[in-house]
Design goal:
Serine Threonine Protein Phosphatase 5, Tetratricopeptide repeat; alpha+beta; about 250 residues; four-stranded mixed β-sheet; 11 helices
Length: about 250
């Protein structure tokens, strides 16, 4: 009798686990209806501003076409389970989308940049899969989760750098070049990122200050690590070719 009860218990547990796995698979096949998830969208800071008012958090997802984990995350039900609205971007689509990984020195995909209701960046994640649930549990409970490629400065400064760099990039995309100068210079004081050097190059180029523009051009294109050469390769191609992207974002 006891043996039969044990066998019955194991069968029930096994059936329960099987049903849970089946349910997870079925749910994962249903794309979330929350937020703005169109993978062909152009990054729009005004849209991001509106999304931060709709939920406790917004996850700006940095991805690219052909990235399996990125597509799985885009079509996952994970955002139905958390007070987090996704905003999906494909870095290969256009220059505006490229500015997102440039701003946050993203070298791995998918990377999530988490904004709270005030529009401040409070966390970053790398990757998807089941481990993402654990990270999101911690984020919504108020714990700090940070995955980044910034070296030699404490995490509290990394968050400050990301927030200021984001403001610099938003100003650039909106063509507010005086704000670009203000925020890019502040970010540079924390960490000498290639993209902020590029923004200052564009600022001084627009002002006709050739000497200052050449200074930041040199800083942006020399003494780079192998990973920086790879991550900023399209930007560096523009800079080293002496081309000024007149049709790109950030024109005055």
């Amino acid at each position: 009798m006891r043996k039969q009860l044990l066998i019955g218990t194991f069968l029930l547990v096994g059936m329960s686990m099987s049903l849970q796995l089946s349910a997870q698979v079925r749910r994962a096949e249903i794309p979330t209806t929350k937020g703005f998830i169109d993978k062909s969208s152009t990054f729009n800071p005004d849209l991001l501003d509106s999304l931060v008012k709709t939920d406790d958090f917004v996850m700006l997802i940095v991805s690219f076409e052909g990235c399996g984990p990125c597509e799985t995350l885009r079509t996952s039900d994970v955002f139905e389970l958390y007070p987090i609205t996704p905003y999906y971007t494909d870095r290969l689509l256009n220059f505006e989308n490229q500015t997102v990984p440039y701003t946050f020195a993203v070298w791995g995909f998918p990377t999530g940049i988490i904004f709270d209701r005030s529009g401040e960046i409070v966390a970053t994640t790398l990757g998807g899969g089941t481990i993402l649930y654990e990270k999101l549990d911690r984020i919504v409970s108020g714990e700090q989760v940070l995955h980044h490629n910034i070296q030699d400065i404490p995490d509290v400064l990394v968050l400050s750098f990301f927030n200021i760099s984001h403001k610099a990039n938003v100003a650039f995309l909106r063509g507010e070049m005086e704000s670009v100068h203000k925020y890019a210079a502040q970010a540079m004081a924390i960490y000498p990122n290639v993209y902020n050097r590029y923004l200052l190059y564009r600022y001084y180029l627009g002002k006709g200050n050739t000497e200052a523009a050449e200074h930041y051009l040199t800083l942006a294109t020399t003494n780079l690590s192998g990973m920086e050469e790879y991550a900023f390769r399209d930007l560096l191609k523009e800079l080293r070719g002496g081309e000024d992207d007149e049709e790109g974002a950030g024109k005055e």
